[in-house]
Amino acid sequence: MRKVAIIGSGPSGCFTAQGILKARPDWTVDVYDTLPVPYGLVRYGVAADHQGTKAITRQFERVFERQGARFFGNVTLGRDVTLEALRAAYDAVVLATGLSGDRDHGLGRAEGVIGAGELTRALYDHPDSGRLPDVRGDVIVLGNGNVAVDVLRLLAKTEAELQDSDLGAEASAWLAAQPIDSLTILGRSPATAARFDPVMIRELGKLRGVRIRVADLPEAEGDRLIEALAGLDGLATGSRPVTFRFGCRPVEIDTDAAGRIRTLRVEGPQGSEVLACDTLITAIGFCCDGSLGRDHLMATAEDPESGRIAAGLYAVGWFRRGPRGTIPENRAESLAIAQRIVEDVEAAAPRAGAGAGILPAGHQIVDWTGWKRLDAHELAAAIAGRCRTKITTRAEMLTLCREKEDAR
């Protein structure tokens, strides 16, 4: 029997497992994750108020419960097992760990300058996140993509508008307490080159308590995004100003005596401008966090377009191509790479590796049953107005995953 290890249980990892097992249901497919819980980006990256998008996890459940993939949570590559050991133990290893570092904005460090990844991990209760930052005053979100829109939307929403999300009690209280005077979403590109999903732009039209202005907008008949942005311009449901600016290149930040940002200078359609800015949130993309040597692996890959790094080693999703693409695009790519893996593995001699048997004895591994215990607990513990209450520390996750097992 052939054996495949997939490192990362986010969308790309789950779709790859789905594709391999659909083609070869008799193979062993083991999905590893550094966290005790599955789903990666869906759990900790998709916005808390986008439960429709998060429903993709029902499809992923079937990969483990019907197709036979095995989940190994709380296993960190490089700490609990090496890549070399995995490659020796499996016919193929797939790297699907994504990208978690915020891309450098090049403006220097200052208090009040926050990466969108750093912020959203804290908002969505990632166990490795830091504390929620101080967001105040005139807030500028730098970016022309959907992450920037997510941040803007959550900061603009009232408590009532977060109904049925999975935003935790601490994050909910934090959002309500932030003294935000205005919100500006600032793009370096012209509006015609922005990468917003028009559906997400139209969603902003449902916000309560805002006054939206869209500046620097060209005429572009038939362009769905421009039409969606134009439809927002002039919306007034309240007093908080929300502004879209395009074609503005950030040049430098200025700070006060305490080292906190106070202004952002940009070059834009009106020439050089100095914008009031008490908080700058950068949503300009993600990069490798330095683990796994991703950049070197992809730079030296045999065939990066097909996902093949070397014989028996593959990459999918953001790890392969960088931080772009929607979940449906990840699905199409992952299924194509799954087919390539099946063809390569069948053409190679079988390996007599031990598969998951190489994991260190005594290490607490979270299997699918353990995850379902934790999942049931989070759903049952949901506070009023929320669909679940996430456990926020690894230690408590591990305790709950093994709770009933220990009670036997």
Q: Briefly, what is this?
A:
This protein has about 400 residues and is an alpha/beta fold. The chain contains 15 helices and 17 strands.
Q: How much beta, percentage-wise?
A: 15-25%
CATH topology of the largest domain: FAD/NAD(P)-binding domain
Mean pLDDT over all positions: 94
How far apart the termini lie comes to 33 Å
> CATH superfamily of the largest domain, called what?
FAD/NAD(P)-binding domain
What low-confidence regions span 5 or more consecutive residues with pLDDT below 50?
none
What does the radius of gyration come to? 23 Å
Helix content: 25-40%
Could you say how many structural domains there are in total?
Answer: 2
Number of strands: 17
Task: Give the strand order, joined by hyphens, for the main sheet.
Answer: 3-2-1-4-17-16
Largest sheet: 6 strands, mixed
Structure description:
By secondary structure, this protein is α/β, with parallel strands linked by helices. The protein folds into 2 domains: 176 residues, Rossmann fold, CATH 3.40.50.720; 183 residues, FAD/NAD(P)-binding domain. Helices cover 34% and strands 20% of the residues. The chain contains 15 helices and 17 strands. It has a 6-stranded mixed beta sheet, with helices on both faces. A 6-stranded parallel beta sheet has the order 6-14-7-8-10-9. Helix 1 packs across helix 13 and helix 14 packs across helix 15. The mean pLDDT is 94.
List the defining traits of the structure above.
408 residues, 6-stranded parallel sheet, 15 helices, 6-stranded mixed sheet, alpha/beta, Rossmann fold, globular, 20% strand, FAD/NAD(P)-binding domain, 2 domains, 34% helix
